Amino acid sequence: MAGERERAVEVLRRASRVVALTGAGMSQESGVPTFRDALTGLWSRYDPMELATPDAFRRNPARVFGWYLSRWRGARTVSPHAGHVALARLEGAFGDFAVVTQNVDGLHRRAGSREIVELHGCLEAFRCFDGGHSFDIDRIEQLAPPEDAEVEPPACDTCGSPIRPGVVWFGETLPAGAVERAWRLVQQSDVVLVIGTSAVVYPAAELPGVALAAGAEVIEINPQETPLTPRATLTWRATAAAALPQLADALGVR
Length: 254
Ligand code: OAD
Hints:
By secondary structure, this protein is α/β, with parallel strands linked by helices. Helix content is about 40%, strand content about 15%. It has two domains: about 150 residues, Rossmann fold; about 90 residues, SIR2/SIRT2 'Small Domain' (2-Layer Sandwich). The mean pLDDT is about 95.
């Protein structure tokens, strides 16, 4: 463990442009479940094809809307952990530092990170299904379902289309601006920290390879092996909350 930490610090000391690519494991120690961990992952308990596709919403909007309301409420009841805070602190250690996240829970923002690219959208940003018109979050607040209850989505004031969560579902394209920004950041980076992602969902899973091809070093922080592990410059087998504060401390950032 100490060797991995020292090597990671050494690589980061040489860097001036750094990107942190985060996935569900980043928020696990805040109490947000991951997707693919056996037993505890959301996709071991729920079928993503029934909850996280446009067709699923068309078939059963109340089921999908209610499930995302539960997730949104869950994300609001948890807090960023020391690893999120350490990433926000690391912004001060480099000329350029950005977080590119697949997470929709808003915890990086709440921890104080400022440069954030949300590749899969955000649980706080509801909009209508057909027209993409935004919907006031305060009105979502008034809907209070018990855990996972079905909730009929409200209708858009502008076009009447049902309101959906502002996240990216399977089969949908990622927000264009976010994709362009993420690719540019990674191509220009010296180091990419890949934290808490199984690195299997594309196109986000391409980013470490894009970084390596552009000559960057890739440091993986994950307690488990992933498809990225054999290609990473180094892997630190640790959790986000354990590893990231050690990096921020070693690099001397408050
Ligand atoms: P996954 O659930 O696929 O992977 C979570 C990863 O985090 C695994 O590799 C775990 O080993 C690791 N992990 C678990 N606890 C950790 C901890 N405390 N610290 C560090 N790592 C830890 O989640 P993602 O890779 O984020 O997309 O999944 C990618 C996308 O698939 C999600 O954004 C979501 C999902 O379907 C959509 O919903 C579109």
